[in-house]
Protein 1
Amino acid sequence: MAFSPDGKTIASGGGMERIQLWDAHTGKHKQTLTPPLTVPGQLRHIDDINSIAFSPDGKTIVSGSPDGTIRLWDVGTASCKVTFRGHSKPVKCVAFSPDGNTIVSGGGDSEIRLWNTATGELKLTLFGHTLRVMSVAFSPGGNTLASGGWEGNIHLWDLETGKHKKTFRGHTSLVNSVAFSPDGKMFVSGSLDCSVLLWDLAPSISQNRQ
């Protein structure tokens, strides 16, 4: 699920290849994003949707699916704008960069891919995880990416160089959520081991465990 940037709309993905939009204040259903199919798999996912995110301007939604595809949806017209193909296994997580020009996807193939939002062109592939990539997050400045994996580690990436910066270890199970603080000086990771770790990026150490 995801909130729109203005907080007025909630998007939910799941079964039947559809994205549902809901009014966050009234709880009423607003819209279903499911364009008609002319060729099987051409416009919509051919499997359940398991990850979604709004663009910074709230006009576009990105979705990832177990079928290995990523789709961009126009909220206003409920149409599929661009399809991203490249992952060989299910797409577990997606996110927009702060400027909206780049989309990141993490897959069951252990790869992280960065895409041009406008064209769907693959810009960069990051290798470092040994198992599924479960969560991704851009830093507020958009130049750093954090990714959490099935193996329980968090990786930090320099997107200006495409190089791996550091591996953070502390969880004993998969990392299913990562998020940066607004100033970009810390990030938090959540795991299936029932712990939340807060990391200070200056000394690169864990600050808290709950």
Protein 2
Amino acid sequence: MSIEENLTDTSLVCFQTALLYTSSKGERRIRVHTLCLPVVTSLMDVYAGADVQAILCLLANMAVDRSVSSSLSDARDALTNAVVDSLSAYMSTASNLQQSSLIAPYSLRLFPLYILALFKQKAFRTGTSTRLDDRIYAMCQIKSQPLVHLMKIIYPSLYRIDKLTDEGAIHVNDRVVPQPPLQRLSAEKLTREGAFLMDCGLILYIWLGRSCDNNFVKDVLGYPNYLSVPQKLTQLPELDNISSERTRSFITWLTDSKSLNPVLQVIKDESPAKTDF
């Protein structure tokens, strides 16, 4: 798309697209999207308004197409170049700023991190054995998932759930939903004394530390201790205690926001499936 007209005399521009499609019930529909954006004269204003999540998801979709039409290596190189080019352009524009190890606009401060996370997805990862079916499935998810769900796949949310309380909880349909703080996605945040839930969009992982409190194991998982928990556990029992109610309420709240119910998988500290987590 190109614009040949002079925009100096206007403060807003509007983009509009129309999609003609057939619904699952055979109905012909038209969906119209309209986006209004301000016209600015400074490149710094453009950077300030950048939507890093929208940029990431667009690049992920383009990388899938590049993988199919060219090669996986070319797709990865294109993603790397997108980060390098955007930050290089910003550095040349913001040459008056104090130099540091990484100069990036506030809106794009997570851009390199998100690209690194994208490289670890089955669709684009290298150096790790990946079945072709798994890679194609991951690519299809990138092409079909809406932005909110795709961001969960690329950069999941991590919570510690063995110490849930009602402090800061929200009320949803007469149900109290705990709100544990988000943890940084780093292995150093995992402790063997805790239990952590990672929301990956299509799947929910519960990582159980070897030294996790037996009260949590018994009240939430329904087993007397860590050693008695089976390797393949995919659901939580409904137990009559406050810890079980809080945990299930939080998981239900997470799943209610998704179009499809995610799969739940409990992973023990020494489990072979730990690499998936």
